[in-house]
C-alpha cells in the first residue's frame, strides 16, 4: 500500500499541518491502494492503476483505472477520470466516470459525465448521465441532461430527460424539458416544455407546409 504523509508526523512537527509538495506522482499497477493522508498537499498529475483515497489535498488532475474516494477532509482541485468516484469532501473540476456517489458532506463544483449519479450532498455544475438520483438531502444546481432523473431532494436549474420522477419531498425549480413526468406529490416551480425543445431537434414540416413554402417561392420568382 502506498502511503503519503502521516497523522503522527503532523502532530509531532507542528500544531499546523505541513504540506508535502510533489510535482508529479505516478502510481504503478501494484493492485494496492494509495492513501493521501490528511495534511498532505500534492501538486501535479496523478495517474496509474491503484485505487486512491484522498484525505489530504491534490491540486492537479487524477486519471486512474480504479476507484477514487475523496473522504470528508479531502480536497481535489482538478479533473478526475476513473471508473468509480465516491466523494464526501470537495472537488472543483470535471468528473468523468461510470458511477459517481456524492455523500452528504460533499460539495462538488464540477461538470459531470457518468452512467449513474447518486446525490446525497451538493453539486454545483452540469450533469450528463444515463440515470441521476437526487436523494432526500441532495441538492443540485445548474443543468441535468439524462435518460432518467429521480428526485427526492432539491433541484434548481434546468432538466432535460426522458422520464422525470419526483417524490413527495422533492422541490424542483427552473426549466423542465421532459417526455414524461411522474410526480408523487413533489413541488415543481418553473416552465415545462418538450424534451426536443432543449436538445435542438428541428420541427417536422408537414406536406401542407412544404406546398405552402413552394408556392411562396414561385410567387416571388414571378
What would you say this structure looks like, in words?
The protein has 222 residues and is mainly beta. It has one domain (2-216). The protein contains 3 helices and 23 strands. The protein has a 23-stranded parallel sheet that branches. The chain is elongated. It starts with a strand and ends with a helix.
Largest sheet: 23 strands, parallel
SS field, number of helical segments: 3
**Helix-and-strand structural type:** mainly beta
Give the quaternary arrangement of the chains: single chain
Distance between the termini: 82 Å
Helical residue percent? 10-25%
Q: Count of DSSP E strands?
A: 23
Q: Tell me what portion of residues adopts beta-strand conformation.
A: over 45%
Average pLDDT rating? 82
Q: C-alpha Rg, in Å?
A: 23 Å
| Overall domain count | 1
The low-pLDDT segments are 1-30, 199-213, 218-222
Keyword list:
single chain, 222 residues, mainly beta, 23-stranded parallel β-sheet, 3 helices, disordered C terminus
Briefly summarize what is shown.
The protein has 222 residues and is mainly beta. Helices cover 12% and strands 52% of the residues.
